[in-house]
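Thread: "does anyone have the structure for this chain?"

Original post by V.I.:
We have the sequence but no experimental structure in hand. Need at least a predicted one for the grant figures.
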Amino acid sequence: MGDPKKRACLIAIMVCVVLSGCGLFVKRIPAGEMHMTTPAAKDQFVKVGNVNYHYAEYPGPGPDVLLVHGWSSSTYTWESVAPELQKKGYHVWSLDMQGFGWTDKPRGAAYDPLTLMQGVKTWMDAVGLKKVIYVGNSLGGGVGILMSLEHPEAIDRLVLVDAAIFPHRKPLIIALAGIPGASIFAKTIFGRWMISSNLKEVFYHADWVDDARIDAYYARMRTDGALDAMIAVVKALDFKKLDPYARRANQIKSHTLIIHGKNDNWIPIEDSYALRRQIPDSIMAVIPECGHVPQEEHPEITGRLILDFLNGSLTKDTLLTSLDHP
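Reply from O.Q.:
Generated one for you, tokens below.
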């Protein structure tokens, strides 16, 4: 009968198929097409190797800030924070990594964190970014740690938002993506309901997940190769290979801000405390009543913390309270 856990997962998936309808009839968006634009920014594409990268640029006269998303996410996740940084004069760049958002999702490509990091660095070279203030959420935070160690010359200051770099219990949707045959089943059950369920899991305030947010994620996940890429990322996520880098976090020289949503169900807050202990020049801020994506659930607070950090007024570890909410 096989592994009982895998069998249970397959049964759960088949139940979802029955309840949700067949995802094979979801209309896909061809590579290179954008069905939504980025407010207040210039959407641009640049071909790097065989990958057409999408990025949103918010021009400004000041230093360059690079915003990088997490798993199954995109430049959309920063749309409420980026304009606030731009208003303060920063030149903001938000990137869709290979396999995400409106960027190409080549089948058979490598999607491990180190390869994704090298892709970000190659994109930076292509658009002329030499040294950036790097801001990364979840997987994007892990990519930022890798870049800080492998290409320290490219990072001025570092902001890690619920960063993923240590081994931890995988959320159900990610665990399911790692089982054999996941790609076939994902295409069978995929629908808007899946996006809604996933977003409500990463928000502390699940009722804040509205139709516009669901539609923004759903559109990008309907792009050609998106489901295959998400599953490839999960299968390539080997924490044993990341462990040597996690252990070298004490070698990060960049002044670092670590932000964590206190109620994150995906990345344990202990991971960020561990980074705070390891990275010599770092400070940490905890946002209460907040899940895995502070930049979406509390964009005003997240933007304010980043700006205070950059202008030097955030100088010690901070545990915000509900009274600090805008």
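V.I.: this helps a lot. DSSP finds 13 helices and nine strands in the chain.
O.Q.: and Residues 13-22 have pLDDT under 50 and may be disordered.
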